[in-house]
Amino acid sequence: MESNILKRLREWFKKNAATLPWRPADLDAPRDPYAVWISETMLQQTQVATVRDYYIKWMERFPDIETLAKANEEEVFRYWQGLGYYSRARNILKTAKMVSEMHNARCEMPRTRKELEALPGIGAYTAGAILSLAYHQKEAILDGNLVRIFARFYALDFLPTDKASAGKNESCAEAYWKYAREVADSPKAYMHNEALMELGRTVCRSKNPDCANCPLNGGCRAYTEGRTGEFPPKRERTQRDWHGTALVVESADGKLLAVSAGQAFLAGQATLPHFESPRNATAGLPAEAEAYLNADNVVSIKECGSFRHNITVHKIECRVLHVKLSTKASKCVASSGNKIDPRFNATWVKKEATAKKFANSFSLKAIKLAFR
Ligand code: SF4
């Protein structure tokens, strides 16, 4: 982008930058790298309006890397609950622990792309955001907003994820990154990057871009050619249907079975045992349930209906069975042996601690159906 366009972009940003909890009033002030990392990670796949409250609560509880590094996964998930994509929360915690060990008491995010990208959950985008917004380095970023702007501004009929070459032996991703680096090749890279993210969110929106009020309209090909609806090119997102059953297994002493491995979804988190099953499943205890409990100990099986839920590309419809056992949690055994298969990493959760221990809406929806 030419310098006069970038100048207009900066002026637009200074007038229109929204007030956000992670954005200081002085737009030229270097940011706290920790705050950039947390806010940008939360903002991946999640709207600003949703992230706002999560971010404030998170920073009250975990104001810096050192505090976060001392937290446990269960608590971190609780503060993440509702944001989805829990692997992001898990990676944040892993990275905080690694940074705190690497840098001892200093607990500072690394200052090079190579070091940042070696940390769990930090990819090219987040690394670029930390380096440019916090350390004011001439580093590029590329997120969905910038992709949409570049596609329209340069009338690009391919996406960064396309496999085919964008020409001159250049991959499609590289073609986009080249434009991103061009924008960042300036002492004001931090402002260009942030202004473009904001512009993509508020002006160059997916639907109905507000081109008349866009600071880039003087150089935008899609706008001048009246083709904004053609860019970026459409690609169908493949949604996958998943139909299954979740078990709310309750022991005689009122504890619920939680597993954190060997499940279709939510690996590494305390969740309800669940498995794929047909829509017209027959009544009674499904054979798959016997991996988690001994059928001889079953006192009652209640059909609780089903709920819908989305996890990443999966469109889930899940039936819920509330299974009551005659034995106490400590005595519960799966039919396959004298304890539940260790690959499920099973634990028992007191009913009153449900909301705290099952920090994912998939399990909470099922539990709500079981005890309504
Ligand atoms: S002129 Fe329109 S299409 Fe082009 S960048 Fe601005 S808002 Fe987007």
Please state the CA-atom Rg, rounded to the nearest Å.
Answer: 25 Å
Q: What's the CATH first level of the largest domain?
A: Mainly Alpha
Query: How is the largest sheet built, in terms of strand order?
Result: 5-3-7-6
Ligands (ions, cofactors included): iron/sulfur cluster
How much strand?
5-15%
Q: At the fourth CATH level, what is the homologous superfamily of the largest domain?
A: Hypothetical protein, domain 2
- The overall pLDDT average reads 90
End-to-end Cα distance, whole Å, is 58 Å
CATH topology of the largest domain: Endonuclease III, domain 1
Overall helicity: 25-40%
Q: Which class of secondary structure composition applies to the elements? A: alpha+beta
Poorly predicted tracts of residues: none
Q: Helices and strands, in N-to-C order?
A: HHHHHHHHHEEHHHEEEEEEHH
Biggest sheet details: 4 strands, mixed
Count the strands?
8
Domain module tally: 2
Please render the helix and strand layout as text.
Elements: H1 3-16, H2 33-43, H3 48-61, H4 65-69, H5 73-80, H6 87-102, H7 113-117, H8 124-134, H9 144-153, E1 165-167, E2 170-171, H10 172-184, H11 189-202, H12 221-224, E3 240-250, E4 255-258, E5 274-276, E6 298-311, E7 314-325, E8 347-350, H13 354-357, H14 361-370
Parallel strand pairs: 3-7
Antiparallel strand pairs: 1-2, 3-5, 4-8, 6-7
